[in-house]
Each structure stands twice: as C-alpha cells, then as structure tokens.
Amino acid sequence: MSGLTLEPLWHDFIRIVKKEVKPALGCTEPVSLALAAAVAASELKGKVEHIEAWVSPNLMKNAMAVTVPGTGMTGLPVAVALGALTGDHQAGLEVLKGLTTTALSEAKSMITAGKVKLRMERGCDEVIYSCVRVYCGDSWASATIAGEHTNVVRIETNDGIIFDKQADLVRDDENTSLSVLSKVTLSDIFRFINNVPLDAIRFILDAAKLNGELSREGLRNSWGLHIGKTLKKQCENGLLANDISTEIIVRTSAASDARMGGAALPAMSNSGSGNQGITATIPVIVIAEHVKADEERLARALMLSHLGAIYIHNQLPRLSALCAATTAAMGAAAGMAWLIDDRYEILTMTINSMIGDISGIICDGASNSCAMKVSTSVSAAWKAVLMALDNSSVSGTDGIVSFDIEKSIANLCSLACHAMQITDKQIIEIMEDKM
Prior knowledge:
This protein has 435 residues and is of the alpha+beta class. Helix content is 54%, strand content 11%. The radius of gyration is 21 Å and the shape is globular. Mean pLDDT is 92; it is low at 167-175.
C-alpha cells in the first residue's frame, strides 16, 4: 500500500480484514487441533508413536461431525493424527495441505490400534482450546492453542518449557486490531468502503476466487448433503424457479457442501470460519454478476460484506449457540444491497430485517447440515434486501430490533453472549451422549 493516502482508521480496517479473512483447508475447529498436533510433533525427538489430546466443549461440538478434507473420515481423532504425522506447523489453517495417502493410512492404523486418545477438557474457560501431547518412546512434546484457532500459547517437551504466553493477552490487549471495532460504527465502515483507494483493498478479490471455486466444485460433485446440486437439479425439473434468488442459494450452498463434505480445496474464511467466509462472499458475487459490476465495485461490496460480518461477529464469542452464518449473511446482505442501491439507509434497513428474521438459529456444531443453515441465511439476506429496496424493514417496535442499527446488533449479540449460553450447554450435553 505504499504511496496510498489512507486515514489511520482505514489502515486498521485493512489490517482487521487481512487478519480475519484468510484461507483455511477444512473446518477450522478440527484444523486447529491438527495445528496443535503439528506444532507439538515439530518439537518431538523422533517419530510420533502415540497421541493424547484435550479439547474444550465448544471445539468438540464444532468438530465432532465434520469431514476432514481428503480423508472421507469425520471428527477429531483423524485430524489430530494427521496433524501429528504430516501437518505443516508453519501453515496455519492450511496445516493439512500436504496430506498424503501414506500419512492417512498411518493415521488410520494409529486410531485402530488405540494410540490416539482424545478427551474433553471440562471446566475449560476458553471457548477455543486444544492441547496435544505426542510421544516417541520416553520423549514427549506438547502444544496448546487457546483463544483463537491459530494462537499457540504454550510449547513444552520433557526437557522443559520452550514457549509460554497468556492467551488473553492476544484477545484483550487494547492495541490489537479487533479492539478498534468497539469504537466504530457501521457508518464508519460504510464511508471507508466508498472512499478507500481500490489498490488498498484489491486483495479481497481473492475471496471470490477461492470461494467461487468451492462453489463450482460443490455443483460438479455430490459433497455432503449436496444441497446446491440438488436445488439446481430441481430447477431443471421445473420444481424450483431458476431466478436470482435461487442462484444465490444454490451457489452459496454448493460451496458449503464442498467444504463440509471434505473437498480438498481451501475456503477463504471469515472470523475463523470457512462457512462464514463463504456466506459473506458468494451472494455478493452473484449480485455483482447480475448488475454487471466491474472489479472495483465487486471489491468494495466484498469488503463491505466481510468487514461488516467481522464487525457484528466481534461482539459475539468466537463459538456460541448462535449460528454465525446468520451474522455473516448480514454482511452479505449489506454488500448485495450496496451493489443495487448504495444509500446507507438501505443497508441499515436490510440488517434490521435480518435481525428480526433469523436471530434464533442455533449452532449445533459443524457438520454437513451447516449448508442448510447457510442456505437459509442467504435466502433471508436477499429477502431483506428486496424489502429495503421497497423502503420496508422490520420496525424498531418489533422484538429485539431497535430504530438504531447499532442497538439492534448489540441486542442480538447480547442474547448470544448471555441467554444463549444455557442453550450452548444443552447442545453440548446432547452431543456428548452421541460420543
């Protein structure tokens, strides 16, 4: 960005998006555990012979039914085994990109032989937490991730501690980029995307490339519940209208199908979630194509969608009982609305209607059915856009919606942070019974 004149706040916005919007291969919860295993294995003297791992209840919830890319297998045991055997500890959320058939065979053998032990860390204060200890004879090494999916807070071996830091220093430090979001409003983001030089945000177009390819893969093959492919087929059968609304749902669902079904392609994630990244990206692409937007207008709409989604999600726990595809879809709704009518009032009406519509969708863990929630969320987003374009939205007199958009968002996030914590515990208990 050398040579560009940017306001100080705009630098912060760009840093935030670059931090929160990045490639991830596979669902980020099992991938986070795989990364901890890879880091631990990188410090071990010798080949990994057996593994012990501990995860927080929420990480367990969001990884229990997920297909690990390239394996055809679900859950945490295969993720931690592959991370330890073949993971690239320097690749972040793409830790498993070097997966080989030999490593997969070894991982399966370790699991079958009972050499992979996984436990839930009860009473864990961290929503995202994983600790992996790998062994070779009498030697061992461990790594702990906490607070964020790639935030390594401790590395230790039988020879002593190699690295140690407080997880909450990263999360709560007033100098971190995300802390800026507590001091801004949607109107600040709106002014930014309308005025920032294109070259400063051109990088966001990579989201269109990565998530667009996931969508195409989801329509080529039958991944997961193959919702996108099924709906497209029903359009051809005349049972579903082949219109712009269906196109949004089909293409977005297809990308989620591929990701949750184990396609070996990275998603461009948002706020630590590939599904959130997909939801914030694909609907905007569809509308950009429909209105024949040029590259600059697409980049600005994608930046509004992704930064808007981050802004809302920042008021939530990283993982909670509220399905975050809904908040990502609020970002997408803003981006879609802006492409058609770039008045700020349209944006606020759109998000208010979204909050009044789908605020109660729960997260019951990452799985193939996430594509269903994604399809519901983007459908609601387009409906809210259409209402706003007709000068209609959910009123501030209704439910948790306020006349002030910032208050509406705060009300939604307050539910997730407080009342829905009980819901989250109940969901985890139900899922525990399946283990």
